[in-house]
């Protein structure tokens, strides 16, 4: 049969990867789109960690942000709207060697994909998930998203959105087996990079919600926030996002926040005065489904054959 | 004791009637162990070299009330001196634990005039006058219907051996059946020893006692004795149902990941895999829904692992969008659809073949994929292996359509001989030759090599958007057209590799040709055989490849005066207000008419039941009659 | 100034060439206002009594880079002295804001030898030598291709009036076009006054100045002048695109609830409804996904409200399961599917007719439902009203298949005259006559009255399980069969009420018959008309009812030597390795072959483009040629 | 056209409804199934509130518990697995007069229906939702459900469930716009009835999770709990479930819990020592989507016709 090969070959000579090794085609987002910054951050982390490009898989759904895989020079899966997480889990299930980055939008993850979101958090597989939250449906040209603020005028709600916006952080911190929740903003590359790096280093599902500017359709939503960093509250901790002089300078408001405490994380997420950024929650001890799904990976063809014959014999007469 | 029995069996006590095949049912309230006894008896028959088909009789509720018509629970065992391919027509002999459940079977047309019914008679003396009356009325009604009722003091006899006859009487019945059909009682004892091996010696001993008692009772008191001769040398066999065969096929096909969401009647595939899959290092993933299940399987396939998802109609519906992505992204994937009654939730536990067109044409846009349908339990095993092979060779999803009839039917089939090559993983981690594009289509076959994550140099983005050979999104006219051509070409190439189906009956033609697919083969061919035995000019063709269709159909069809598509899916009856222009034909007929332009008629049943040889025989008479009238 | 122009137009400056129709394009980077100018020009034409069809040229990205081929953004306006039914073939006159975007249009085969191109020439003197070179090369290439390029100092001229010519030049072009086509400049001024009414007087004044300047410039410097005569008395008209027509139809049909999830190219229906629906008291619900959208609509329908869901291919896929429930539960429901390129995510902004079979046969089990396809923008309005009527009369879901071509095409259509009876709500809260069962099927039509929550005595449980007339779950053979028969009967009854389609061309038959459906009617009939004008024996039939099919097709088809199904969906080309037995025909051909047993061929295009009269004409030549060769 | 009627007729004579008026066909659950008790509780509430049977709609998905509508003598909608909530919202959207009861299972609501669950909570439409949580897939005969405890042996996990069970309470208390969350057990009819009544009286989506015995497949899961009511913690409050002498007697452990405080509700739900029963959270001030969806309900045909003509004229030339 086609392309069959039974054994693995590994590439012996050591390689050094530059940023270029992760840079795919020219990214085609609108000028000023927050997605560019996230792409750069991920490419930088890949280089820092010297991830072999062939071992990286960028998985996405459909949306502006879900174009992400096309702009990486790695493997990629640009699938269906709302379904990146099941695909990513399937990829990871039997390939512990692959490094999975999931790009998903607020519509993709929190609307059509919400059912998978809950369950992917519960599976807690070892991957990094980036929620590009621009509070709008970008690709389909300006419809209300579940995270659009009340009063947000879009093509489907020209007189303003009516329902209170879904808060991804508070939701996720209620999901069973949640193990890492961070929040960043696209316009602060230092913070973004630092949090994504933490999420990536986390063993389990590292979920980062990124407040992402969409100048084309929802520019006003984060405009104030961008201008006044004092509306943000930086959460730092030695076991979370460690404080650095740079971060210290960038954020007028900060707070020590121990990310190992789920109750405190929920309180931090529910903060109505300032928007928390940083690592809200981290529990590396949560079970990861990988430990279950990897079972039997190394079974040899001979052993399989023996077991199948034994199975057949169980039904023999 | 009724004298009807002796008359019906036409033998005096002790003399055995030899029959080529017999159909036995044990019918009871649920939880009375009828199925266990029947399976054990089936095993006795199979191990003694008989052809066997057993199928469970399942009530609609999980725990229906006792003595209710809807609660009929039990088992049918068809035993024959040839390979048995279907559950047959009306039963020849029935053991019933109460009279009410028999009504449920009568609605299903399970009995005929002359069917022997061995009926528990404790209800005749029940405390409740109501029950006594119901029993008496039923007895009279059954006899009026021409059933040969033989009253049995079942629990009373069992009480001699156990204080809880409700639990023990099934083994008593097993013993009885061994006597009636002339099997040595030791065969039954062996089965019981195995069945109860984990329950301790005491339990085994009690059940042995009950079996012996039943055997003795029947030998002494039941004047009907049959003999079904053994098959000539059936070879090494295993006894499985279709879903177990699929599960075994999944393992033998080297499938690494099965992602599913529970749904009747497909779930038992995963029940079996839940037990066994880890032994071959496989992963069974129960996903949060059917969409996630196929998404997970697709992810695994993308990552170079052979993957499968198993479902039934409503689940297939939910997988529609991802199926389209698998076609567009050219991912190998095996989808097993164990068909049940539809549309919508329909008849969840019952058989239908209604997902044929939804499989072939159900996805928006042009979504060519392979659709195959095993016709036997044995093929349930082998078709999974074929499906994996085709999926990888052509880089395409393959749908395997089985149904509730195959899923729940149990029979001895030749023991498969798994091959190492079936198990070879598709994964390859060698550096990718960059000159080869991610979709480097062979224009003859539409096939192309597939880069797998981990292969340096093979990096590409799988996308559901229109794309070029090198996997780049492209909205230009040519890229879209070429991609569609190449994906479609796979079916043309596969069709060229197929052989025309064999004609069962007369290859050279004749009056009537029946065309079937999937689980109906056994019944159709048995019906045809009977009609041919009576000198009628009727043949049958059975299809296994539904997309692409096997070649040569038109040539075959043209040799017959009339061609009729047979199936367990809907077609309009031919009576008012239906007429030719507005008649909706069966899904199979639609396929065949488009392909051959022959005026293929359709004859179908949607009653939640497998087709039986008798109804096929009747259909043949009907069609031949019409043909004769038309010609005269 | 190039002299090519004068030659090509064949006139001296000042003398106007009269043409029956003309195709104009304005092509630009996105955000340069080409579409606004084109729509205004289309309105000028329409209000001056011309037939018009405008269609936007949409780039793949939301904000593609400037001066890129993939970025071609703009508009096509086809104007004629008859009703214009399609976007036509190659453009006659093009205004382009840079040369690179023209390449994008060339790939789409938008121009021919002799096409007049009015090209902004500021790039010739750009600061960047690279751009200067690109421009020069393009100019040469275009001229080699036979385009008649006329260089224009567009921004330079605009700079005389505004400091930001990038924003203003579109109005300058509008003025130019008025001059070229001989419309009074006042018409354009009116449009601009309306367009900019909310931006204040100053903006209006500036734009008026630009329009006048463009008008004057063209009159003085552009030596090509055309005249398209007006239509005779077109009556009261409205100018809408197909999605707006659907939205207006939804309101006029008295639909109370529209539940949707955004998806291109269907979303603009909800954009329009978002603006307008509340004015008729309607509810637009943006659901969390497509499954919830149809579920919500089904809930509303169950509760007695007329409901609709609007989607495109991938969304239709997700609605598969609920569609089956609507069939089984017999709920009226209107589903509008604005088809786009498939399979999977495919070509989201581009046209295809690939959802035909998925609509008819896409649901597991037998799911008869009505599928209709408007052929024109006007019908987009009226078919929603028909759909609601059929849905309620037969208690069934009705799918309305439009496509991206109809959705985005803009044209003047006769103003509909909404009727009060269209709006009557189905809800009835009077006590229910308990003798009438919840599914009291009329055996002739399969229809039945429907109890609505709130009606005392009508209480019943809608279920997707097999059920009896009185809505009780039933697993017996007869209930299942009868339910299926009654649901299927609706299509038989509806079909009996339909008339055979009219033949465009020669009712009595001839050499070639083209069969189309949906948005392709205009192009097909224009192509046929041209061939007939040359004496060829070709006719066309256009289908609007896809399930059930209109009656009488076989009779019509048999009158022609060859019948070809035409459509924007896939069929295998007839070249190696494709041969007759393995060829996959188009979805429409499959339907027709099954129904008529006529050897219907298929000719299709899947290039993401509407069909054009010219390609239809070519296809006619090809098929007639083959026919002649076969006969000789 | 068939059955069209343009005006409403209301039934004038006052009626008194007995329990029988709400009792449909004989309920066909297994003996000892917890579903019976819930059915009885709902029928009792219907009678207490004298809800006209024709105004009650029982909506469900697929599962044992979803058979519920068949056993009510009211209108009912027994729809698709996982999808009762969108249907219920659609029904309610334009029929404020109807009283909606949703019956859903742990598989139906928390697995396949999880995406709708999040969003239905956010829509917060005025209805009562009962989650029959038996920690197993009953109807399909014993598969693992998202709420099955670790180690639970089912047909799909014969060696025991692996993932930590999803906690519906903690999840829901993170969902935006949650307005009422209660928890009951099927085997305490007094508690069950009291909580369901509160949920029903609540304006907005009253969600009650019911720990429900399935003696056939998951009997052991709640066996201990049933035997030892001290493993339960009764939450009472004057603004929540008011204490009664009966409740006081039935529950050895109780706590005052103010259900208006979301933070405290989250803490109560996260209690690992005792399982909280009662009203965990209630906020009657949350926006209900009904207020939006009911807009324009009374528009007359004449007004509609006028508006449509005006719309057409907007496009006129
Ligand atoms: C099944 C399906 N439904 C709908 C769509 C249309 N669609 C594409 S992207 C999108 C939403 C995009 O919003 P979001 O996820 O927030 O991503 P963004 O574009 O804002 O980055 C929608 C509705 C689709 N492609 N498939
Ligand atoms: C789309 C679809 N998938 C799967 C099924 C099969 N199915 C029916 S009920 C059920 C789960 C039942 O579990 P739960 O929701 O917990 O209800 P319970 O029976 O335990 O009350 C499943 C998987 C179905 N009917 N439809
Ligand atoms: S529409 Fe918004 S999110 Fe999309 S690319 Fe443009 S700026 Fe970014
Ligand atoms: S299986 Fe369990 S949940 Fe279902 S009816 Fe029986 S006891 Fe109740
Ligand atoms: Mg977004
Ligand atoms: Mg359950």
UniProtKB/TrEMBL annotation, chains A, D:
<feature type="domain" description="Pyruvate ferredoxin oxidoreductase beta subunit C-terminal">
    <location>
        <begin position="254"/>
        <end position="291"/>
    </location>
</feature>
<dbReference type="Pfam" id="PF02775">
    <property type="entry name" value="TPP_enzyme_C"/>
</dbReference>
<keyword id="KW-0560">Oxidoreductase</keyword>
<dbReference type="GO" id="GO:0016625">
    <property type="term" value="F:oxidoreductase activity, acting on the aldehyde or oxo group of donors, iron-sulfur protein as acceptor"/>
</dbReference>
<dbReference type="InterPro" id="IPR029061">
    <property type="entry name" value="THDP-binding"/>
</dbReference>
<protein>
    <submittedName>
        <fullName>2-oxoglutarate oxidoreductase</fullName>
    </submittedName>
</protein>
<dbReference type="GO" id="GO:0045333">
    <property type="term" value="P:cellular respiration"/>
</dbReference>
<dbReference type="Pfam" id="PF12367">
    <property type="entry name" value="PFO_beta_C"/>
</dbReference>
<dbReference type="InterPro" id="IPR032686">
    <property type="entry name" value="PFO_beta_C"/>
</dbReference>
<dbReference type="GO" id="GO:0030976">
    <property type="term" value="F:thiamine pyrophosphate binding"/>
</dbReference>
<dbReference type="InterPro" id="IPR051457">
    <property type="entry name" value="2-oxoacid:Fd_oxidoreductase"/>
</dbReference>
<feature type="domain" description="Thiamine pyrophosphate enzyme TPP-binding">
    <location>
        <begin position="62"/>
        <end position="208"/>
    </location>
</feature>
<dbReference type="InterPro" id="IPR011766">
    <property type="entry name" value="TPP_enzyme_TPP-bd"/>
</dbReference>
TrEMBL record, chains B, C:
<keyword id="KW-0560">Oxidoreductase</keyword>
<dbReference type="InterPro" id="IPR009014">
    <property type="entry name" value="Transketo_C/PFOR_II"/>
</dbReference>
<dbReference type="InterPro" id="IPR029061">
    <property type="entry name" value="THDP-binding"/>
</dbReference>
<dbReference type="InterPro" id="IPR019752">
    <property type="entry name" value="Pyrv/ketoisovalerate_OxRed_cat"/>
</dbReference>
<feature type="domain" description="Pyruvate/ketoisovalerate oxidoreductase catalytic">
    <location>
        <begin position="31"/>
        <end position="216"/>
    </location>
</feature>
<dbReference type="GO" id="GO:0016903">
    <property type="term" value="F:oxidoreductase activity, acting on the aldehyde or oxo group of donors"/>
</dbReference>
<feature type="region of interest" description="Disordered">
    <location>
        <begin position="1"/>
        <end position="20"/>
    </location>
</feature>
<feature type="domain" description="Pyruvate flavodoxin/ferredoxin oxidoreductase pyrimidine binding">
    <location>
        <begin position="249"/>
        <end position="476"/>
    </location>
</feature>
<dbReference type="Pfam" id="PF01855">
    <property type="entry name" value="POR_N"/>
</dbReference>
<dbReference type="InterPro" id="IPR002880">
    <property type="entry name" value="Pyrv_Fd/Flavodoxin_OxRdtase_N"/>
</dbReference>
<dbReference type="Pfam" id="PF01558">
    <property type="entry name" value="POR"/>
</dbReference>
<dbReference type="InterPro" id="IPR002869">
    <property type="entry name" value="Pyrv_flavodox_OxRed_cen"/>
</dbReference>
<dbReference type="GO" id="GO:0006979">
    <property type="term" value="P:response to oxidative stress"/>
</dbReference>
<dbReference type="InterPro" id="IPR050722">
    <property type="entry name" value="Pyruvate:ferred/Flavod_OxRd"/>
</dbReference>
<dbReference type="InterPro" id="IPR022367">
    <property type="entry name" value="2-oxoacid/accept_OxRdtase_asu"/>
</dbReference>
<protein>
    <submittedName>
        <fullName>2-oxoacid:acceptor oxidoreductase subunit alpha</fullName>
    </submittedName>
</protein>
């Amino acid at each position: 049969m086609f392309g069959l090969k039974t054994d693995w070959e590994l590439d012996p000579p050591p390689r050094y990867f530059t940023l270029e090794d992760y840079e795919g085609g020219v990214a085609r987002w609108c000028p000023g789109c927050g997605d560019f910054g996230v792409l750069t951050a991920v490419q930088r982390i890949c280089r820092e960690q010297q991830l072999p490009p062939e071992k990286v898989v960028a998985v996405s759904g459909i949306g502006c942000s879900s174009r992400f895989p096309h702009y990486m020079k790695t493997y990629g899966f640009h699938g269906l709207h709302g379904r990146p997480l099941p695909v990513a889990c399937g990829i990871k299930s039997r390939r512990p060697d692959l490094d999975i980055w999931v790009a998903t939008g607020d519509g993709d993850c929190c609307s059509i994909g919400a059912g998978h979101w809950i369950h992917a958090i519960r599976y807690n597989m070892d991957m990094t998930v980036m929620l590009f939250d621009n509070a709008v449906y970008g690709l389909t040209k300006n419809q209300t998203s579940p995270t659009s603020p009340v009063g947000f005028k879009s093509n489907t709600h020209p007189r303003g959105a009516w329902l209170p916006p879904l808060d991804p952080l508070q939701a996720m911190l209620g999901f069973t087996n949640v193990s890492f929740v961070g929040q960043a903003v696209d316009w602060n590359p230092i913070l973004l990079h630092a949090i994504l790096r933490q999420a990536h280093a986390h063993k389990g599902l590292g979920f980062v919600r990124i407040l992402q500017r969409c100048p084309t359709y929802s520019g006003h939503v984060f405009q104030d926030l961008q201008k006044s960093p004092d509306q943000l509250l930086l959460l730092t901790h030695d076991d979370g996002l460690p404080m650095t002089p740079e971060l210290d300078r960038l954020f007028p408001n900060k707070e020590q926040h121990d990310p190992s405490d789920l109750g405190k994380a929920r309180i931090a997420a529910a903060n109505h005065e300032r928007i928390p950024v940083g690592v809200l929650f981290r529990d590396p001890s949560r079970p990861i489904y990988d430990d279950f799904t990897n079972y039997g990976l190394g079974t040899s063809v001979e052993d399989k054959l023996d077991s199948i014959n034994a199975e057949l014999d169980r039904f023999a007469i | 004791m009724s004298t009807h029995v002796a008359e019906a069996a036409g033998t005096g006590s002790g003399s055995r009637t030899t029959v080529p095949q017999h159909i036995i049912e044990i019918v009871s309230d649920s939880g009375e162990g009828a199925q266990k006894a029947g399976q054990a008896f089936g095993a006795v028959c199979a191990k003694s070299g008989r052809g066997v088909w057993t199928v469970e009789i399942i009530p609609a509720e999980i725990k229906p009330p006792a003595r209710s018509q809807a609660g009929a629970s039990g088992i049918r065992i068809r035993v024959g001196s040839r390979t048995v391919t279907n559950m047959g027509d009306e039963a020849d002999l029935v053991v019933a634990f109460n009279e009410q459940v028999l009504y449920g079977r009568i609605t299903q047309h399970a009995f005929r005039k002359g069917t022997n019914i061995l009926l528990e008679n404790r209800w005749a003396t029940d405390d409740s006058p109501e029950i006594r009356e119901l029993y008496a009325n039923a007895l009279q009604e059954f006899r009026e219907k021409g059933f040969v009722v033989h009253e049995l003091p079942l629990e009373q006899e069992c009480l001699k051996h156990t204080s809880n006859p409700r639990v023990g009487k099934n083994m008593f019945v097993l013993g009885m059946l061994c006597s009636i059909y002339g099997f040595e009682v030791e065969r039954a004892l062996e089965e019981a020893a195995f069945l109860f091996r984990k329950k301790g010696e005491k339990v085994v001993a009690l059940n042995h006692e009950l079996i012996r008692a039943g055997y003795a009772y029947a030998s002494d008191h039941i004047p009907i004795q049959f003999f079904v001769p053994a098959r000539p040398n059936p070879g090494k066999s295993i006894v499985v149902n279709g879903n177990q065969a699929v599960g075994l096929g999944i393992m033998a096909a080297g499938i690494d990941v099965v992602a599913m969401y529970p749904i009747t009647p497909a779930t038992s595939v995963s029940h079996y895999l839940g037990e066994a899959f880890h032994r071959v290092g496989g992963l069974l993933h129960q996903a949060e829904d059917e969409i996630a299940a196929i998404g997970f399987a697709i992810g695994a396939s993308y990552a170079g692992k052979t993957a499968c998802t198993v479902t039934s109609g409503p689940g297939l519906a939910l997988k529609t969008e991802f199926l389209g992505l698998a076609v567009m992204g050219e991912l190998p994937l095996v989808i097993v659809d164990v068909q049940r009654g539809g549309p919508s939730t329909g008849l969840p536990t019952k058989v239908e073949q209604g997902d044929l067109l939804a499989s072939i044409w159900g996805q928006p846009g042009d979504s060519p994929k392979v659709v195959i349908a095993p016709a036997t339990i044995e093929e349930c095993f082998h078709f999974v292996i074929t499906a994996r092979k085709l999926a990888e060779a052509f880089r395409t999803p393959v749908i395997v359509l089985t149904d509730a009839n195959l899923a729940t039917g149990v029979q001895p089939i030749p023991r498969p001989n798994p091959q190492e090559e079936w198990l070879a993983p598709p994964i390859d981690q060698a550096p990718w030759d960059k000159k080869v594009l991610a979709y480097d289509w062979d224009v003859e076959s539409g096939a192309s090599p597939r880069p797998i994550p981990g292969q340096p140099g093979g990096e590409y983005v799988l996308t559901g958007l229109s794309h070029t050979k090198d996997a780049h999104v492209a909205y230009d006219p040519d890229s879209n057209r070429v991609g569609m051509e190449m994906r479609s070409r796979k079916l043309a190439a596969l069709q060229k590799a197929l052989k025309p189906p064999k004609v069962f009956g007369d290859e050279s033609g004749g009056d009537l040709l029946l065309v079937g697919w999937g689980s109906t083969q056994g019944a159709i061919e048995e019906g045809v055989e009977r009609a041919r035995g009576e000198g009628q000019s009727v043949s049958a063709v059975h299809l296994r490849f539904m997309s692409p269709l096997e070649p040569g159909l038109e040539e075959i069809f043209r040799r017959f005066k009339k061609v009729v598509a047979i199936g367990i899916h809907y077609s309009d009856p031919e009576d008012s207000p239906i007429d030719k222009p507005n008649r909706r034909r069966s899904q199979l007929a639609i396929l065949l008419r488009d392909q051959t332009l022959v005026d293929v008629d359709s004859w179908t049943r949607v009653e939640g039941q497998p087709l039986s040889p008798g109804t096929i025989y009747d259909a043949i008479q009907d069609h031949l009659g019409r043909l004769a009238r038309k010609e005269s």
